[in-house]
Amino acid sequence: MTKLNQIGFLLLVITLTFGSCSTRKKNPSWVINEVMVNNKTNMIDEFGQRNGWIEIYNNTAKTQDLAGMYLTTDKNNPKMYPIPLGDVRTRIKPYQQAIFWADNKPFNGNFHTNFTLDTIGDNYIALYDVDGKTLIDEIVVPKGLPADKTFGYPVDGVKYDKSGNVLATILERVTPNSNNAILAENPMIADLKKNDPWGIMITITCMLVIFTGLILLYIIFNFMGNFARNMTQKRVAGRGKLSAARSESQLSGEVLAAIAAAIAELREDQHDIESTILTIQQVKKNYSPWSSKIYTLRQLPNK
Q: Is this model's pTM higher than 0.85 or not?
């Protein structure tokens, strides 16, 4: 094979390779990732209300801004809801999401549209670029979507398979502002969900662990307290008789000080004793001096 033929063969391979790649549908930079039509018990907005919502996913590795783009439910009216400018929250980080409430209450904020979703029929939802003409992404939510269920893509931002078929379907999990797919699940948790769906075993296990831990802590602290007290008593007992008496009697320092002061005062005889004792005794006589004749005035006094 000549050099010219080699170059031609290489060009043919490159053409076939890139030509086959170009026929494969690419995922758009913005993807209408998940849609809830009938919200009965699911997420509530900042006003405490439940309405349908639309999740738009930044399917690139750079931060993009939704401001100035248009959301619509009508192919003939691509500029139905213009996403307002000047809100920093419309700048979506790579591979992150933004939620728009389809509640027909745009005065509630920039993420509240001027349209609602049909809970009975089909719903066509589209995102147009800032020119109002370039279609970025669209999705058709079929009628009959159950309440509190969402329609979207099992893997965030992956709209087409290798054959170009749309992968949108009813999702098993409702994941607003989160990954649609479980990236990694702990096998132990999966087994626990299967073997203990009501959580009875895990509850009993947790209670046993907690009570066992409390018992062990009580034993450890009780042992440490007794050991420290015994060591303190031995160390203090070697310093003197008073300390030994204190360690034996377990009396406080104030009580022992009062006892010592009382003993010292008793030894020095320093207690209050009155120097004079007043005694009153009763005198008993057989006659009354008031009735004695010698004390009467029947006789004249001697001069």
A: no
